[in-house]
């Protein structure tokens, strides 16, 4: 007689903890779309409150508090503003309205299926934002508005201005490859970064020594600090040989935390 073992039951997801309506992540006065995204822990209370305040001060009114919500700022625009504020907290400078529904993840302890949230249709969403007095459209859009829309990317104006400042500075500093003594450069690289395993650091230092602007990037432990220290010594050696003015070298440490996506 042949017996069949009963099938192994599929693992079940742990039940979601009961949400405290008075907890620190609850936006108690939010309603409608903002409340749904807050309850799913996509939006923090600060995201909601900033977006509502922007609508009240610079837009057509806060839809949550308006006597006539139909005459206030449309909920999709306020949602977009709240997501732009959220993006800053998560290490980005903008939110992509076209892909937000597919790339946004909850911030709570339990994974949330965000596909069931009331996401606006991307084309309609973008059109509503472009029509809002809160939003400047394009690079040549009017100044003084808190949000700026470029294509499908919605920025807080301040962060778009700062990104543009970096772009303009890099463009102004870009130029032809510097003329250096190749033998002297190779000798300095051999002396400072000639060990086996340092090939990528050596390449980065060589490129930076030959260009007016260079960005050296890499994850933790990849040798960025070692490379920059060697680069300083290489530049000192090269400029001492040619008696040219030295270069300025600055460093920047990204606040982005590993494991969090960064929209392009």
How many beta-strand elements?
4
Largest sheet: 4 strands, mixed
Gyration radius, to the nearest Å?
A: 26 Å
| Poorly predicted residue ranges | 255-264
Q: Approximately how much helix is present in the residues?
A: 40-55%
Widest sheet, order of strands: 1-4-3-2
Query: Cα distance, first to last residue?
Result: 63 Å
Report the average pLDDT across residues.
Answer: 83
Proportion of strand residues: 5-15%
Class per helix and strand makeup: mainly alpha
Describe this structure in words.
The protein has helices at residues 32-39, 45-58, 75-89, 100-103, 122-130, 157-173, 182-193, 199-210, 224-242; strands at 94-96, 135-137, 147-150, 153-156. It is flat and about 75 Å long. It is mostly helical. It has nine helices and four strands; from the N terminus they run αααβααβββαααα. The chain is 42% helix and 5% strand. A four-stranded mixed sheet has the order 1-4-3-2. 28% of the residues are buried.
Give me a quick take on this structure:
This protein is mostly helical and about 260 residues long. It has helices spanning about 30-40, 45-60, 75-90, 100-105, 120-130, 155-175, 180-195, 200-210, 225-240; strands spanning about 95, 135, 145-150, 155.
Features:
disordered C terminus, 5% strand, mainly alpha, 9 helices, 264 residues, 4 strands
Spell out the blueprint of helices and strands.
Layout: H1 32-39, H2 45-58, H3 75-89, E1 94-96, H4 100-103, H5 122-130, E2 135-137, E3 147-150, E4 153-156, H6 157-173, H7 182-193, H8 199-210, H9 224-242
Parallel strand pairs: 2-3
Antiparallel strand pairs: 1-4, 3-4
């Amino acid at each position: 007689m042949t017996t069949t073992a009963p099938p192994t039951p599929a693992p079940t997801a742990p039940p979601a903890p009961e949400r405290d309506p008075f907890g620190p992540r609850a936006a108690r006065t939010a309603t409608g779309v903002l409340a749904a995204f807050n309850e799913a822990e996509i939006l923090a209370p600060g995201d909601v409150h900033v977006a509502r305040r922007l609508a009240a001060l610079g837009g057509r009114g806060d839809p949550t508090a308006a006597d006539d919500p139909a005459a206030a700022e449309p909920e999709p625009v306020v949602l977009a503003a709240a997501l732009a504020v959220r993006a800053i907290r998560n290490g980005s400078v903008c939110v992509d309205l076209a892909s937000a529904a597919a790339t946004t993840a909850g911030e709570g302890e339990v994974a949330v299926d965000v596909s069931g949230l009331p996401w606006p249709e991307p084309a309609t969403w973008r059109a509503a934002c472009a029509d809002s007095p809160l939003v400047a459209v394009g690079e040549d859009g009017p100044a003084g508005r808190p949000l700026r829309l470029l294509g499908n990317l919605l920025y807080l104006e301040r962060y778009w201005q700062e990104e543009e400042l970096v772009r303009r500075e890099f463009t102004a500093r870009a130029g032809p490859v510097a003329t250096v003594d190749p033998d002297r450069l190779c000798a300095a690289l051999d002396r400072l970064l000639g060990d086996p395993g340092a090939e990528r650091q050596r390449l980065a230092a060589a490129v930076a020594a030959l260009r007016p602007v260079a960005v050296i990037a890499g994850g933790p432990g990849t040798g960025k600090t070692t490379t920059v220290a060697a680069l300083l010594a290489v530049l000192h050696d090269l400029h001492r040989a040619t008696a040219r003015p030295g270069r300025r070298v600055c460093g920047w440490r990204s606040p982005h935390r590993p494991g969090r996506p960064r929209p392009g």
